[in-house]
Every structure is written in structure tokens, then in C-alpha cells.
Amino acid sequence: METFVRETGDMVRVLEIKAEASDLETDVRLAVKKQQSVTVRRGFRPGHVPRKMIRRIHASEIEDIVVQDLVKEVFEDIVIRSDKHDVVGRPREISREYKLEEDLHVQIEFYVLPKIELKDFTEQVLEVPVAEVTGDLVQYLIKIRMAPHLPIRSLNTDEKIGEADLGMFDRITFEYENVDRKTGHVLIGAGDTKTKQYFDYATAVRMGPEHLEFGETFKGYSAGDEFVIEDDESNSGLVRTDSKESNLRVKILEAERYDWPEIDDEWAAKISDDSVNSPKELNGWAQEYLEDSCEKASRRMLEGLVQKRICELHPFSIPVEFLEEINSLEPGALQETPTGKQLADMMREQVRWNLLLPAIEERLNSTLPEESSVSESANENAEQEGSSEKKILAELAEQFKIKQIPATEWQMMRIVAEENPVNKPTPTDGAD
Fold first, then answer.
1. Please, what is the end-to-end C-alpha distance for the chain in angstroms?
2. Are residues 168 and 236 in contact, defined by beta-carbon separation less than 8 angstroms?
3. With contact defined as beta carbons under 8 Å apart, do 49 and 76 qualify?
């Protein structure tokens, strides 16, 4: 019998087993006996069906027993008891050539922890956005904290969507259809898309700059207006029949806006969670609130950039089949659809980070004094988080070269929007 292990990927190994029929006589005899003990057949006492009959009518079951028992024994001897392979997950049979009284050739695939050699991080440069608290951002914070407590109304005939500062939280109900770019006629099948959809400026801030850009499309219009979007690119939230041959004809069904009152002492207390009691003090409170939020957001962003860069520096392959296995998913679940593939990419990077963490922690501990596993400044930065991973990220951040760049307007607004969601209920897409 021949056995050997070959490497087919950073985390993938294949165990091959080759055996001649004469090498398997004992295995076959034991398999027949095992099958005989569970076979019930009319005219014979349980466990006493003749072995020749067992071989004839249960050949495939006997072959399975031979292969399974042999693989279990060889895998234990060659792989598990060896110091060469840090096995993760379950082995699986990927190839079999075997019939009773014939030679056997089986291939078993299994996963191992990758060999990790950490790169040097000290010369790596990270660009970290740093937010500047502006007067507009202060007013945005005040309004977004007021919005959940306000009534919402339809826009008046003389009011336009998105106008001035009042429009930053407008909500629009609209419908659209695909029309031929040259003739303006509705395309066949496009009527199926003519359903109600919604756009909420406050929610869009949290979703991304492309959603805000889409919101710009509605500015200056009123309920009942129709217009055509002629961009070649797909717009967030809308589906084109063919982006090269069709335009999107949009009709605004309804436009709504919050009623913004004058801020008095009561509103100042409500907005600030009773931290201040007058409109005069509110701006100062908002400024301090935003400075603290932006500092924490920059730190979180830095930690995310550190994790992403370290993963990029160690691009060992992680099979999608391994991701499916460890997440108890059906084979192919992460390979058949764009959404599945996107989910696989997210899982892969998280698994990559988890595999790198032990090596990173070992390096950090080997370079620090024995009385401390991470530096004092890293501990201070991560104290509120309370997790060892946060402390490790804080320590790693000190090893990178940091280049501060101005944060975009959307990044600053998103910091505010994520911490202060507008919790008023909004309709779901496609609702009647």
C-alpha cells in the first residue's frame, strides 16, 4: 500500500491512498463480517446470512466500509499523528476508484492552518481621515437629534425637495420605469418595475455617498413632477433594463418634510439629553459632542485600516469550500450568486484576520516587557472596548506611519447619522 500527502493550496492538502487488491483481503473480510451483522434476510437468522450472498447483494456497502475504515486508519496514522499538519475542519473524499477484488485509489482532501510569516509593518503608511467640526455639522447634529420627535408633513406647492437646510431630511415616494433612450417609449417588461419606492435623506447618509448623489436627482422638484435620468450608470436603488439603451423616467408621488420649530430651553435639554438648558449653550455642547465622536470614529477607522492592510500583506488563499464548511452552509452556497460571492469575500477576510491574530499577538508579546502584553498607550486607547483584539489593533496602529487627510463631508455626516439614527418608521421598498 502507498500513501502520500501533497500540497494543493495554502490551506489544502490531499491524502492519496493506493492499494492492490491483495493488500485489502483482510479489510474486505472484516467489512463483509460487519455488513453480515446488520443484514436481515428472510430464511436466515439475523447475522447468519451467508457471506457469499452478502458480497453479492451488498457489494457497494462493503466497498464503502472498506474505504471508510481504511481512510480513517490511514488518516489517523499519516496525518493526525504527524507534526507536519495542523488540521482544521473535516476531511472529505474527492476521488475514488475501487471495486471488490480490484485495486484501490482514493484521494482525501483536508484543510490545514496556513504557514504564516508576518511581514514588517513599520514602513507601511496609512491615510486616516480626520474630521473638522464645522458649523454645518453642528446644525446637522442638532436637526438629526430633533427629527425623531417631530411630526412630518407633505410639502406645500411652493416648496421644493431638498431646498436649503430644511430639505436635508426630506422623504420621497416615487415610481420609475425604463424607457427607450431614442424614442421615449416604455420598454417591454418595464411596467413590472413601476412600483412605489422610497428615498429618505437621513437614512441615505448612513448608506454611502452614492445614495446621497442619487438624492441630488430629486432636488428642486415637487410632488407630481416627472423627469428622466439619462446617466449611463445604474443609480442606487433603481434597476435598469439595459443601462446603455434605456433611460429612467421617474415620477414623484409624494414629498414629505419635518416641521422644524424654533429651539427653546425645552428643546435644548431634549437634544442634549439634559446636558444643557438653553439654546445659547447648545452649540457649545454639540461642538464638544462632535469632537469626541469624530476622535472615536477616526480611531475606529484607523483600526479598520490596520486590519485591512495586514490582511492585504498576507494574501494566502482560503478556499470557499472551507468557508462553507465552517459556517455550516450547503456546498456551493457561496459560489452560485453575486450575493453569495460578496458574502464569501467578507467571510474570507475575517477568517484571514482570525488566522493571523495568534502570530501577531505572539510577535507583540515577544517585543514588549514581560510585565505588559501591550503598551500603555495601546491599553489606554482600548480601555473602553475591553477586548484583547482592540488592544492588539491599538498596539499595531502605533507601528504604522499615519498620514492624516481631511474627511469628506459625507464621512463627517455619517459619523453623526450612525450614532443618532432617525427612528421614525419608514415604508419598505415595494409597499403599496
1. 69
2. no
3. no
| Mean pLDDT of all residues belonging to the chain | 83
Q: What is the DSSP string of 164-207?
A: TGGGGG-EEEEEEEEEETTT-PBPTTGGGG-S-EEEEHHHHHHH
d(CA 309, CA 120): 12
Question: For the segment 331-349, what is each residue's pLDDT rounded down to a tens digit?
Answer: 999 988 888 899 999 999 9
Cα 119 from Cα 132, distance rounded (Å) = 34
What is the per-residue pLDDT for 242?
A: 47
The tens digit of pLDDT for each residue in 217-233 reads 888 899 999 888 765 55
Band (374; pLDDT cuts 50, 70, 90): very low
Rounded Cα gap, residues 109 and 92, in angstroms:
5
- The domains found in the chain, sorted by start residue, are 2-112 (3.30.70.1050), 151-258 (3.10.50.30), 265-418 (no CATH)
CA angle 103, 108, 112 (to 5 degrees): 155
Residue 106 pairs in a beta bridge with: 17, 96
Helices (H) and strands (E) in the chain, counts: 13, 11
The CA distance from 264 to 232, in Å, is 48
Q: In this structure, what are the phi and psi dihedrals at residue 47, rounded to the nearest 5 degrees?
A: 85, 5
CA distance 120 to 359: 13
Q: Are 44 and 14 within 8 A, CB to CB?
A: no
Residue 407 confidence (pLDDT)? 87
**Cell numbers for 375:** 503598551
**CB 197, CB 235: distance < 8 Å:** no
Question: pLDDT tier at 143 (50, 70, 90 boundaries)?
Answer: confident
Neighbours of 413 (CB within 10 A): 24
